[in-house]
Design a protein that fits this description.
The structure is a homotetramer. By secondary structure, chain A is mainly alpha-helical. Helix content of chain A is about 60%, strand content about 0%. At the A-B interface, helix 1, helix 2, helix 3 and helix 4 of A face helix 1, helix 2, helix 3 and helix 4 of B.
């Protein structure tokens, strides 16, 4: 994802919602609900699987579902003037301190929600 | 988010998980669960609010929580060799057809889960 | 919900899954995923609403969606031999200590996730 | 769960929220968000597990987490005057038609979200 693509995506999303007069629904709480619902759509692709892979016949849907999560993530970040790349870089700084290699190596119990 | 930043973030995440020997936990089903859990952490910031804004005293947390969602989104996209920018661009093509301005303008009932 | 109804519901659910040979999919992780997905279906009824009520045309669906959550809740409780009524009664004991009337009265910030 | 227990639980929950003046936060959208957040807490107990069982050291928490889901389920059902036992019984009628034994037996792909 280069800068041109990202800016162009944000612009496209903004135009899309403006054309449909949907900004009226976009208070941040509603955006957060939609983000959660789309993340659940991703998870649903793995429902009932025993091999932890996407369920049969649903392999083509993961790209669209991840895109939907990205859509709401960009909307929320835009609402709060957050630069997602900088936010993640800053969070990785914290993660590297919180989950020191020494303590966390190979241990899932040290690896709860980042 | 420019290209250099994005590639560098992905590289950093990969190194972070490799250093901690955490790839063993990263089957896609577990990644999808973590994506969902982090999206819920975002939503939790809005729990009980009446004004649909982040609850008092939690304003500083939104950046970290969105970063966490981005983290798992990148991990899942990387697992399936999906380019998030291209995926979203392609999804927007579909959205613009599915939600025609004529039919969808100003109507939240036309605007369910993308 | 009286005892006869509850026992009869559990028996009915068990027969339903046995008849379909679905127990093979019911490891507790998969049950927990389904519980989460059904809770999201409930939340989806409120997506985009401004008045915090169920969205127009969806009012008849809440009963079925709550039933679906109840279904997985009973399945998970049964898996772990948990009596839901006793579990909730015990949890209320804790809640009454954790959220003392004195400290919690009228304050949503004291009222996060029980 | 017998009738006396259920009625007594509902009464206890109502008194608990009244004592804390929390009814003001309990519009149904907020209740649905809390239901979803608690279902995520259940799912979190299984995060990163490879054996699909609750993660080590968290076994004692499942009872409390299921109780929390039950709490919000009862609150939402009460808000809409829904009898959970009748609602589930009615939903099972539909499930038995929708997922006929003949078509659904042994097939997880027939077994998506009820």
């Amino acid at each position: 994802m280069n800068n041109v693509e990202f800016e162009s995506l944000l612009k496209r999303i903004k135009q899309f919602t403006k054309d449909r007069d949907w900004d009226q629904f976009h208070d941040p709480k509603n955006l957060a609900i939609s983000l959660q619902l789309e993340a659940s759509e991703v998870l649903e692709l793995f429902q009932w699987t025993k091999d932890n892979q996407i369920k049969a016949g649903k392999e083509d849907e993961i790209s669209d579902e991840l895109a939907d999560v990205m859509y709401w993530l960009i909307m929320l970040a835009n609402h709060y003037d957050i630069d997602l790349a900088k936010a993640l870089d800053k969070k990785m700084d914290k993660n590297e301190v919180k989950y020191s290699i020494e303590k966390a190596k190979g241990k899932s119990d040290k690896y709860t929600q980042l």
